[in-house]
Amino acid sequence: MNSREDILGRVRARLGRNTENAVTARKDIAAALAERVERPRPAVPTDTAGLVARFEEKSAAQSSSLDRVAALADAPAAVARYLAGMNLPLRAVIWPSLAGLDWRAAGIEVAPRGAVDSDLVGITGCFCAIAETGTLMACSAPDHPATVSLLPETHIALVPMSRIVPGMEDAWNLARAELGSLPRAVNFISGPSRTGDIEQTIVLGAHGPYRVHLVIVEEA
Amino acid sequence: MRVALFVTCLVDLMRPRIGFAAIELLEAAGCDVIVPAGQTCCGQPAWNSGDRAAAAALAKKVIDEFAGSAYVVVPSGSCADQIRNEYPVILADEPEWQARAVELASRVYELTDFLVNVAHIGTLPGNFSGSVTYHDSCTGLRGMGIKEQPRALLAKMSGVELKEMAAAEECCGFGGTFSVKFGEISAAIAAKKCGNARASGADAIVGGDLGCLLNIEGKLRRLGDETTQVMHITEVLTAKN
Amino acid sequence: MESRSRHFKANAAASLANPVLQANLKTAKGKFVDKRAIAIKEIDDFEGSREAAKNIRNRVLENLDLWLEKFEESATARGATVLWAKDGEEICRHVAEIGQRHGVRKAAKSKSMLSEEANLNLALTAAGIRPIETDLGEYILQINDNEPPSHIIAPVVHKSLDEIADLFHQVHKTPRKTEIPALTREAREVLREHFLTADMGISGGNFLVAETGSVALVTNEGNGRMVTTLPRVHVVITGIEKVVPTLEDLTLLLRLLPRSATGQSISNYVSVLTGVKTPEELDGPEHLYFILVDNGRADVVGTEFQDMLRCIRCGACMNHCPVYQTIGGHAYGWVYPGPMGSVLTPLYTGLENAIDLPQAATLCNQCGVVCPVMIPLPELLRRLREKQVEKHLRPWFERFALKIWARVAASPPLYALGSWLGVRYLKWLAGGRDRIAVLSVAPEWTLGRDFPAPEGKTFRELYAKRRGVR
Could you tell me if residue C330 is inside a domain? Predict the structure, then answer.
């Protein structure tokens, strides 16, 4: 008997599984998979101003820095200002999906590809953003490589205001509606990487980025 | 109001004055108190040690002994919890006994809870004067919801100043048989409780469970503290200076 | 990991006598307990959330066989290979085979308690694969001669900054750092190289989502993302009890887990990984394996201990446990310490191998009230004590003492006599003082404290006298 049969067999025996209750059970499984039950959720503002304020508050609490621009076209200039202000090079690896923005006009040299170790700055968008916890939802795709938000020390994310949702449930609803099936990697990112393993003292910048800068785009 | 007192074996053996203080308080609240003669132990040591048979036998004994009383009052959160919350579990395999256990549970009260919420005691007979800090015994707190009741009673005494300690709700390390099986760990936990209690600056450490109090007092004295008093709540409420 | 739970008492004594450990435990307690309390307030309806979480977990356990099949189906449909392991040895065999198949020389690991259960690192090394722990705490343990973890969330909670600074200095052969950020930076640089050159990433799995065939990883450092994005092979090792039905169920549990564990509203990274990379994608593993592990779990299903399988490994129970707070994790002797460890260790490694663990608890229920999935931990510990009695695993003098007490308490005349004698004996032991320094009948009590003397007469005799009854 292989291990699968051994393990499942013992579980079945202990549950008293028979053909009859298997029928009822499968119904419960189907029901569980189909239902979208309202569960206790903390109150989060649902008006735009409240949502954005909450998102900004929570992001700041997690040590992300924030900026706002009116239109997507304004984003490259805002990013250039940020990089200059941080004494960082005006050079970044970016999501290929963002290649259409005028980075050159802002003086930033961009590489639309997956990130490599020597990249210091990574610029991404996001699928949506969660106000409750100040979290970005990034879905992997050929033009959204996961390494861009992971390898570089500095991660800059463009956050369309219209894509800020109250909670993770809302994020999943969007994903179900727009993507159908899940991408290979859904990464929920809440600020710079950190560790508390040494004497329970939080230090930013463990293996992921040291700093996360969010540019909220009002008209997007 | 007719009340039957479940004295508890610890009070019976170690501090009878707590039993008498309990009676005094109940009578001050206008109750007639009877003390069923054959009572011994609620069976908690047996139950917590895994001896189901012994625990069940003692549960049945208590159920029989206190069958007729309108109220059963216990000067201990853990013993009251054993009777109210554990007896129905212990006797789950015997439906008739379990029904009687459930019925008894509806009549069982920890003493301070009874005085405040059922008997609505007015003036307290004691005139204790001094500062106290209150230790919330685990089972009393988390099993029986004892928190505000003793504090409400202490607040009625003009001479009492309540100084809450840090981590009042944390375990003192007694744990019944734990204290005699893992004495070192138990004493180390007790040391923390003593530290917090002493830091409050109170003259007396007060609580509702004698097991906790014996543990705390024993540790205090071994630490060299001869001045901080350790008293059961009934003793404070009936103290005559 | 080899179980050392048989040496609990000796290990606990050593912990009590260790001033560095005691100081670290004190600091850790303040951080974990206080932060959790603040974070829980954000949830609004904590009790309602716990209830919902409990129901989600129970729903799966009640039909675990079918949920596992559903997960397997969903994961396989997305290109993953689902394997099954009965025990630690089989986990190791699977991983070694996978390594061989894909020419793996180096494996980067993010946290997996199951790999600890299985001694995986040893087996990998024997198979010619170099394992690198990348969770900072686990890495520190690895370079310290594979020291075992002492907490499931904070593996080196027992270590001080100085100890870690010394260790890095010795092992990395770098100048000795004195600040935590500098040490963290050093670890980042050392491990970066390994992330980039590892052929295989090994992770645990906080949850398996049956609906989508996904694994959810809850991390802060970024190492979890590294090991599941860069190497071409990803292996997930996790227990069969980790399945949850839907993404929404996952969301509720994610609200409770980080808050209960470290007091964070959400962990830095939550990665929900499904299947392998498509040819067009620029990163991600080409091969994904799930190893679904039994190692004692299947045999808990359908028993009086099934509630324990709801555990989501948050660590709140041990953070709030007065015993854990006093002796730390190593004393428990196996992978899982504190209350949850005291239930799992006897269940997974054998009752007779962990006799002290269910006994070394005050049953205060500080654990039960913080458990996000409402596991009745004190009751489970009590049931394990009952099992010990049934299997005659208790020492003879304990059985004897309890038998005597039960006999005496059942008989009022015997009790009257016994208590009359008992209090007078104790009074005599006190020798006129108000306390007893050495309690001969229960010497453990007086190891660290005095035993107050009884009044000298029983309530029953005094009450009878007052009533004029005799």
Answer: no
